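Weekly puzzle thread! Below is a chain. First person to post its structure in token form gets bragging rights.
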Amino acid sequence: MDRFFYTELARKSLEGQELDNPTCGRILSDASIEILPLLDASFQVRKTYFGREVRVHILNNAQNGHCPEDCYYCAQAKSSTADIEEYGIKSDEEMLGEARQAYTKGASCYCMVFAGRQASQSRIDRLKRVLAQIKSEFPDKEICVSTGFVSNEGAVELKQAGLDRLNHNLNTSETHYPHICTTHTFADRINTLLAAKSAGLKVCSGMIVGMGEEPADIIEVAKRLRALKAESIPVNLLVPIEGNVLTGPPTKAFGGDDLGIARGDNSGITPDFILRVLCLFRFLNPSSEIRVAAGREMHLRSMEVMALYPANSLFLQGYLNAKGSSNASTLRMIKDAGFSIKSEVELDELIHSNSPKTELKTLKELRPAIQ
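Winning reply:
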């Protein structure tokens, strides 16, 4: 592919031009478009808005399980038999303590996630109290909350209490949505995002790649988020959890059984494809925070660090119910690639405080032939 093609992608993105669908499709699927020049083009856009800085997020489940929704990808859904630790809403003191820990570990944004269909008034009232406590102690730090559907009035109350961002992922396209959930609609999710925008909240919304979607579905989500002017976009990769309805890539795009479920087979999304998805999201949402989110370790493998060229954000300390890589390895990856983090704590200090001591071999490891 001629170098001009890649420079044009960066130029159009930086000038605010929306790439047409055929070009977006080629970015995802055309093997003649080489990944390294594509990453470099996306990095020129990323660098313009964020330099070499990585924004670290830490999330905690403020409530885990007992969800009445049937989202096929989620271990907390009523459709899942995953063996998770279920509990009710944590105390105010526990949530405040977790926020303190997150910020001292280098997070620029602390994310609280609540299971359930929607934010009741009692939950809104509870959140307002917790938000006020966190903001009084950390006025300059960002807080993001994920709490299901939120009304216009609820969004206003949360904004007035000090909330910075509301997370509510689109997860997939409107067309593909019935294939991943039946208890609510794509429109329900859009309405919550519109309520957040109307209240003056920043919007955090993204998708999950690897649920049987076509490239056209990925393009649709990226463009929907562009139209919404989403400030933060997490790009998740399906994490196969035993007991979930979706434990691998469904048949529509990747092959599988007649139900559209390929259990335990995660070969459907490759590191190359994931990097192309991240580049596409960067070109279409040049000034948004693009987060390489859940599943990055599993699906990107040895190519994980390359995600930082289109993406400028990641999670530290794992995800909702699945563990991630260690804090030390993630922070070292950031430093080794020449990036910095947005934090009042120095990156070297964080690496030192999170680094484990060298482990010595056991006798069994030293003498493996002895039974």
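Puzzle host: Confirmed. Bonus trivia for everyone else. DSSP finds 14 helices and ten strands in the chain.
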